[in-house]
Amino acid sequence: MMSAMRTPEGVTVTLVRGDITRQSADVIVNAANSSLLGGGGVDGAIHRRGGPEILAECRKLRASHYGKGLRTGQAVATTAGQLDARWVVHTVGPVYGSSGSDPSLLASCYRESLRVADEIGAKTVAFPAISAGAYGWPLDDAARIAVETVRAARTAVEEVRFVLFDDRAYEAFAAQLG
User: What is the largest CA-CA distance in the chain?
Assistant: First the structure.
């Protein structure tokens, strides 16, 4: 399954049903937790498949600039280790229903990830559905925020790929591309 559209800025936005750790892209975005030290879901899968190099760089970040962890809505790049990518951009999505369930924080994850991708010269970026899993953000709303934010972004990235793990997520994102 695949759907596509172009943004006003000329970015091709595609949807893919699959495993983000199997994507070939300049950047694979990690829906990280604030510790940057791995976790469950997409975060754990990226750390497992990418290997110890990713965790080693995350530990260096924690020892220097991010001693208290990465704040919700921010993004930072590391090596991609053994993934078929040049970099992993880690971003911390908000947990729905807590004090961090402000939609602007979820939008910031996408904007900041694209800003970091621009800084490192990436042309292709693969995103998961940030906050739509364990962090409990309602899937339809998460898809709307993701697609609207990418559609409005000013970026040099040429392709944004939303990599959706199941049919339900794919359909929610496809409805937003319509």
Answer: 44
